[in-house]
């Protein structure tokens, strides 16, 4: 994967949608997403081919029937990743 200097990466937690489709093993919780996001940040930081490390968009939660933003925020997501997020997104 190649990133330009202006690349932005949007992350999706997928919540229970991912479990229903077999992409994650249930129960996949906001804390699991937090851990995966931390892994992503660590991989980006370790990759010298990604010059801009703070252009992430997340968590892109999907609302009713899925996680609420507060579910993800309760994990400490915003405090832990504020230096890496360019935008906080919520899907409708």
Compute the number of helices. 4
**How confident is the prediction overall: mean pLDDT?**
79
What number of structural domains do the residues give?
1
Portion in helices: 25-40%
Radius of gyration equals: 13 Å
Tell me the major beta sheet. Answer: 3 strands, parallel
Stretches where pLDDT falls below 50 for ≥5 residues? Answer: 1-6
Q: How are strands sequenced across the largest beta sheet?
A: 1-2-3
Q: Secondary-structure element order, as H and E?
A: EHHEHHE
Q: How many extended strands?
A: 3
Structural category is: alpha/beta
Strand content: 15-25%
Shape: globular
| Cα end-to-end separation | 29 Å
Please summarize what this structure is.
By secondary structure, this protein is of the alpha/beta class. The protein contains four helices and three strands.
Features of this protein?
alpha/beta, 4 helices, three-stranded parallel beta sheet, 92 residues
Commentary on this structure:
The protein has about 90 residues and is α/β, with parallel strands linked by helices. It has one domain (about 10-90). Helix content is about 35%, strand content about 15%. It has 4 helices and 3 strands. Strands 1-2-3 form a 3-stranded parallel sheet, with no helix packed on it. Residues about 1-5 have low confidence and may be disordered.
